[in-house]
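Task card 7
Instruction: Convert sequence to structure tokens.
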Amino acid sequence: MQEKDGVFRQKLERVLKNFNEMSTQLSSEGISPQDFTRLSKEYSDLTPLAESIERFFKVEQEMEDLSEMLKDSELDEELKSLSFEELEALKQAYPAAMMAIKVLLLPKDEVDERNAILEVRAGTGGDEAALFASDLFRMYQRYAEVKGWRFEMMDVSDTGMGGLKEATATITGKGVFARLKFESGVHRVQRVPETEASGRIHTSAATVAVLPEAEEVDIVIEEKDLKIDVFRSSGPGGQSVNTTDSAVRITHLPTGVVVQQQDEKSQHKNKAKALKILRARLFERKRLEQDALRAQNRKSQVGSGDRSERIRTYNFPQGRVTDHRINLTLYKLDKVLSGESLDEFVEALIAEDQATRLAEEDV
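Output:
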């Protein structure tokens, strides 16, 4: 155990040494603009870890100093009592300080800091499923407002009765994908539909997919692999939309993935948006395949990205929301749907994922 602690300590010392060397390089006069930009980002990324390590070492040093002080037989009783209390408080804080470092040392998901593309689709349950899909889409829109993110609707197909067949949006902001990636899966609702005269509870479902926004370097799409159809937009949008072939459907022939976009009046803009969604779907497909290979010898984890997995139930009669992956139930359905309390699930899912990875990683 001592040997492992020694290796861990050496690892932390190396991180601090590297951090301090970066600081020296950044302040040197001969650094090139390119190196300055690269190092600035690395330094910024490393700062939270370096600061946590410095705090950890400070706690260790203070514990050592207090332990030495308490060995002094001539120490004043009042000072001894205060020192003992302080030492006990530091001992209590020590495990949390170490855990904070271990979490920061976990390998980062390279797409965590990216923007996300949100897709919500009505599942089983007819009109009630479409209404629930609309509730979910609005929940994420409100959550984005709470977090100060930008929520841009990409494509919306409604039922004309307040429900959504499917809807797509781009969510832009700091760490969007990191916080929303565990939302992918089947969301289930239990409630009495307004059209139900007997007051019987119905169960319906909607599917949510959260994709990291892909860049052109992530996925190269060949023009020859695309089948592009243009057609007349349907639904609301004004006369010019209804009389021009501005809607675009793109089929990626090698995978069979189909994306349709009709939100814009310009065919060019619809094509650009459709390609953005297509690139994200292909990128996510590639990531999930890689994750599946890495996870072959492991149990299924939180956030597997399996869209057929039932992840959460929203029970209206009881006013509760239950996340089945972490067995967490909140009796504040209204606040979850308003985006106000969604963070309680998000934080718990992130913590569960970190705990799982800490158990697997030798940090």
